[in-house]
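tl;dr need the bound structure. longer version: we got a ligand (adenosine-5'-tetraphosphate) that a collaborator sent over and nobodys looked at where it sits. i said id run it. heres the input, straight from their email, havent touched it
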Amino acid sequence: MGRIFSGVQPTGNLHLGNYLGAIRNWVRLQDEFDDCLFCVVDLHAVTVWQDPVELQANTREVCAAMIAAGIDPAKNVIFNQSRNSAHAELAWIFNCVARMGWLNRMTQFKEKAGKNRENASVGLFAYPNLMAADILAYRGTHVPVGDDQKQHLELARDIAQKFNNDFGVDFFPVVEPLIFGEATRVMSLKDGSKKMSKSDPSDQSRITLTDDADAFAKKGRKARTDPLPLPDDPKDLADRPEAANLLGIYAALADRPLAEVLTQHGGGQFSGFKQDLADLMVAKLQPITGEMRRLGDDPGYIDGVLAEGAERARALSDPVMDRVFDIVGFLRG
Ligand code: AQP
């Protein structure tokens, strides 16, 4: 039925957006697809400066979060990206396939580089080529991600197609994004126009997977809202980004359609709704955060999962890369 590849950067502050937009969907997909690779993308992380000691701790934390959320390391391939050199090798070939103009259009680079573009790393600019390589080194067909990665996946499709055209082959598949759920883009708790993100300087802007029950309640209570009561029709959320965000989070966590949540809460005040939301976060997230903590106390186990996953990953990418080198014309003895 196809092969899943997806990843999370080990850049700390793993948050509710990463969970609802990505990791939780992976848990569901692992039963639908025979082959799933879930990767801690440490090569992507170093496109901006990372403290080496923290990078190692964050890599283990992301792996623990995946397992704690319900991804089975025996059935799926869980590993960190730098352990398989195929990612970097194919990314180089894609650096030579993708066009500068394509990368110049990427909004994430513009957002992350900000005004200081000249000072951004070359790696940050070429990030989408590495992302295409992550998927295509396994000839991955389906990529479950949050809405923010849509543009990068379109680029991955363009790269695959150009490679196939340039070399007159039908080798790389057309990658399908899988973007689903009621919270495909979770927004900051402080500003409904900004996505919830690991790099936001304010810890109050996000729910992290290491927060405790008190933090869920406090952050939920303090989340920005507007003075109106909750609407009962989804159409009335169009110009109320903060309300839309909190209701979307609620619907996603409760696993219920947004319309149904509005039927229940419409007309009510935010104070009562926020309490319900905090209770829901505790009920749904605390078992995960507790399990993450337990796994965090056993780094030997996590390291074993990552090492074994990398071996399995290499076994899957080796034949793909042999064929790529052959197509490109590299003599390999
Ligand atoms: N706010 C979000 N809502 C829904 N999904 C999200 N994702 C990220 N933020 C949200 C999804 O999480 C997966 C892993 O993301 P990543 O580790 O590659 O980080 P990112 O997309 O660059 O965003 P972050 O986590 O906020 O980090 P910074 O602050 O560095 O930009 C992806 O599937 C992503 O779509």
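gonna send this back to them w/ a short note. The CA atoms of residues 99 and 262 lie 46 Å apart.
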